[in-house]
Write the structure tokens for this entry.
Amino acid sequence: EAGSVDIDRQPIKLREFLEDVFTTTMRGGEARGIVPRLELPRTLPNVQADKDLLRLALNNLLTNAIKYNRDGGSVTLQAAEIDGGVSIAVSDEGVGIACSTSSTARRAPRRAPARGTASVSRSRSRSSTSITARSGSKANPARGRRSRSRSRPML
């Protein structure tokens, strides 16, 4: 079907995956003196995601952060468990999104969706893009119990 993408979800050790993508992609910023900053908690949950699509999304965010950054600026990759999901953010010291851009492009999501989304926000000195995924424990109203999964769906 035109415009469709097959998603091959598989378990990913998220911390190791993020370290690998970040280290590989940030080599592109060495010539411009871009300072890489990886801010990950000691542990992150495993996630169910399409490894290739997630790598592509992160690579695009990181290469844009390098490309549109100032010489000697920094690029930061952060991840955290938030509200039963995982949030991954890339920030830099580049120009960000122009104020004339539609406000919907700059608006952060109100709550994380079932599978994942990307949102963009801008501040005076840093631009930031994040991917969030909501999953984990779900209430079972019939039994009043919560069930937990060991990995969380992402992309």
